[in-house]
Amino acid sequence: MINDTICALATPNGIGAIGVIRVSGVDAKAITSKVFSKSLEGKVSHTSHFGTIKNEEGAIVDEVLVTVFDTGKSFTGEESVEIGCHGSPYIQQQIIQLLLSAGCRIAQPGEFTQRAFLNGQMDLSQAEAVADLIAAQSRGAHNIAIKQLRGNFSNKLKELREKLIHFASLVELELDFAEEDVEFADRTELKALVADVLAYIKRLAQSFELGNAIKNGVPVAIVGAPNTGKSTLLNQLLEDDRAIVSNIAGTTRDVIEETLNIEGMLFRLIDTAGIRENAEEIEALGIERSKEKIKQATVVLCMADATVDGEVERVSDWVKELEESYPDKKILPIINKVDVASNKRKWLQISAMEGTGIEALKKELVNAVQGDFDLAEETIVSNARHYDALMRTSEELEKALEGLETGITGDFVAMDIRQAMYELGQITGDISTDDLLGNIFAKFCIGK
After folding, report:
1. Which of 31, 170, 209, 396 is 20 to 30 A off residue 238, Cα-Cα?
2. Would you state the CATH architecture of domain 130-212+383-441?
3. Which among 209, 330, 225 has a CA at the least distance from the CA of 283?
4. Distance (Å, whole) CA 302 – CA 314
5. Angstrom distance (rounded) from CA 57 to CA 354
6. What's the CATH fold of domain 5-107?
7. CATH code of the domain occupying 224-370
8. Which residues of 364-384 are buried (b: 16+ CB within 10 A; e: fewer)?
9. Structural domain boundaries of the chain?
10. Could you give the 3-state DSSP secondary structure of residue 353?
């Protein structure tokens, strides 16, 4: 049981219209009552009370609105108070100092959410979703985080664990009656069950590439020879003159990065220096950076100039090289300047200057990242810790499936299943350590 009471600013630092100071713990009401003009003892949960906060000399620090939450009815599951004050950093610090003097201590990063987890208000994956929800910069990232916070991911994992528990119980029951040669589970059904769970776990793990891209933004490198219209394309996508455009080859000498939201996905567009041989020294440095950005990108837009003889063929060869060198990347070849010259190759054809084909390009970008995943219906994994646990679970299930197919004894199969259950439990916090919890919640902000 947690016996102390913590406090922290729950709203961002800096000047604003209002600020919220959160207090949570066994003495939240009693401590707040010491600095508030009204006693909060006996006040009904989820009610707000207007009054003043005074310092030790009796001077008014601020007029505030205090909201109380009873044990079991708050975010943390503990008795809690939220103090709404004016958004002056001075006022906020003065109130926090008074709370500390009255018996609170400053919360550690993520401690409110950690207490919510420890008090059974949410599991570990839901707690991590709180941080993802706060950090979400796009509709896609928000949707993934809110689904996880609402328990979609947790509920599915619990369902899978229950299936594995049932499986392990049957196998271990047979071990107890080994001398009687009793078979409680049909091996064919067990193999089908494990194969079914394994397929779903692998699908979840595969979704991490998409989830991570949506969460952090999808890096898209725009590459090609000098003067193919890369900067013009960047400006057209952004609907802003972000990059300098001219007919002089080599105008872009450094990498330019901007963000673009398409259908709720955040794309990090990277306009690179044109890649060519025999570039002068400064331009050559830009070209080297361009090559580095290709390595870092998830999607690479390879642009060809329709007005240059042999350009499309050269880019076609380059696309093949990139696909061989980076099989995990999405390489999208594009023919630009089709308003001036035509080309029959079945690539995406655009005019960056006129805006032709830009909407089709946006759809291609979304499809390249999303693949065959249904964002509306499927659970998407965006947390690297969850991905690692899913991969370890997959390894254990593959061992169990192999054991069933080769006729290995039930005790070894049960060990693999138990280990798979353990790995799944790491995600939801059914299996956790102090070091794991400390590492997760240390990444949160102080007031959350």
Report:
1. 209
2. Up-down Bundle (1.20)
3. 225
4. 11
5. 70
6. Gyrase A; domain 2 (3.30.1360)
7. 3.40.50.300
8. bbbebbbeebebeeebbbbbe
9. 5-107, 130-212+383-441, 224-370
10. coil
Token couple for 244: 């300098």
Q: Do 198 and 394 touch, CB atoms closer than 8 A?
A: yes
* One-letter amino acid for residue 120 of the chain: G
Contact 358, 364 (CB under 8 A): no
pLDDT tens, the chain, 448 aa long: 578 999 999 998 889 999 999 999 999 999 999 999 999 999 999 999 999 999 999 999 999 999 999 999 999 999 999 999 999 999 999 999 999 999 999 999 889 999 999 998 998 888 888 889 988 888 888 999 999 999 888 888 888 888 888 777 777 666 655 555 555 556 777 888 889 999 999 999 999 988 988 888 899 998 888 888 888 888 888 886 654 444 444 444 446 788 888 888 889 888 876 444 444 443 344 446 667 778 888 999 998 888 888 888 888 888 898 899 889 889 999 999 888 877 778 889 898 889 889 999 999 999 998 888 988 888 999 999 999 999 999 999 999 888 888 877 777 888 888 888 888 888 888 766 666 567 667 766 666 6
Chain-centre distance of CA 376, in angstroms? 16
- Which of 303, 405, 404 lies closest to 352, judged by CA? 303
Q: Under a CB-based contact definition with an 8 Å cutoff, are residues 7 and 107 in contact?
A: yes
* CB atoms closer than 10 angstroms to residue 189: 11
Q: What is the pTM of this model?
A: 0.74
Question: Please, are residues 268 and 217 in contact by the beta-carbon 8 Å criterion?
Answer: yes
β-strand pairing of 256-262 with 218-224: unpaired
